[in-house]
């Protein structure tokens, strides 16, 4: 009767275990970890009210809000921010943009795409493609190379770069390019 060698069986089992261990190690090397960088929360039809001592200061409305882990917020489908007077009764101005990002670390809103600021009491509007709103300093501004168009009840002002207070009642165009009467601007298509 022939006997089996215990050494041969041990060698075969050892080779099998070594092969499985190597295969598992190769799988770990092949599949790197993927870190999710997208939004942690998404909310549709957002209405956010900012108040102090039961007085409404601002209202933000948007069809979609995305909140990220670092506190940044994104409004990718447009948003409107409405500012109110001190008693919180009358609308002072509104800001609209097609895309808004709130940078939590800087407390800065970045607005892009058909940005429009309207000061209701003064009946003046600002149109531009990119605008920044610094919440702590309560000011709005653009890059110095950004084209701006301001319309008042009587004239149209154009230029590059703008700084203004939050309610858009005081503003300055950094590089003015043109001042037109409202009728002249409409005739020229400005």
Write the SSE topology.
Elements: H1 6-30, E1 41-52, E2 55-67, E3 73-75, E4 79-84, E5 91-97, E6 99-103, E7 108-119, E8 124-134, E9 139-141, E10 147-151, E11 155-165, E12 171-181, H2 182-188
Antiparallel strand pairs: 1-2, 2-3, 2-4, 3-6, 4-5, 5-7, 6-7, 7-8, 8-9, 8-10, 9-11, 10-11, 11-12
Q: Give the overall average pLDDT.
A: 85
Report the C-alpha radius of gyration, rounded: 30 Å
Which structural class best describes the helix and strand composition?
Answer: alpha+beta
Helix content: 10-25%
Q: Sheet bearing the most strands, described?
A: 12 strands, antiparallel
Task: Give the ordered list of helices and strands.
Answer: HEEEEEEEEEEEEH
Low-pLDDT windows of residues: none
Summarize it.
This protein has two helices and twelve strands.
What does this entry look like structurally?
The protein contains two helices and twelve strands, in the order αββββββββββββα. The model has no long low-confidence stretch (mean pLDDT 85). The protein is an alpha+beta fold and 190 residues long. β10 (147-151) and β11 form a beta hairpin.
């Amino acid at each position: 009767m022939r006997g089996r060698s215990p050494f041969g069986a041990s060698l075969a089992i050892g080779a099998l275990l070594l092969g499985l261990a190597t295969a598992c190690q190769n799988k770990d090397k092949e599949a790197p970890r993927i870190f999710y960088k997208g939004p942690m929360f998404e909310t549709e039809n957002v209405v956010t009210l900012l108040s102090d001592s039961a007085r409404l200061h601002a209202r933000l409305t948007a069809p979609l809000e995305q909140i990220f882990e670092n506190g940044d917020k994104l409004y990718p489908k447009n948003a409107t921010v409405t500012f109110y007077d001190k008693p919180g009764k009358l609308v002072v101005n509104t800001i609209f943009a097609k895309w808004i990002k709130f940078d939590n670390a800087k407390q800065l809103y970045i607005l892009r795409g058909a940005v429009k600021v309207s000061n209701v009491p003064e009946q003046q509007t600002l149109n531009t493609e990119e605008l920044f709103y610094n919440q702590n300093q309560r000011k709005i501004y653009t890059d110095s190379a950004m084209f701006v168009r301001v319309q008042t009840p009587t004239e149209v002002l154009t230029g590059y770069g703008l700084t203004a207070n939050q309610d858009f009642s005081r503003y300055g165009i950094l590089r003015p390019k043109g001042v037109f009467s409202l009728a002249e601007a409409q005739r020229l298509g400005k």
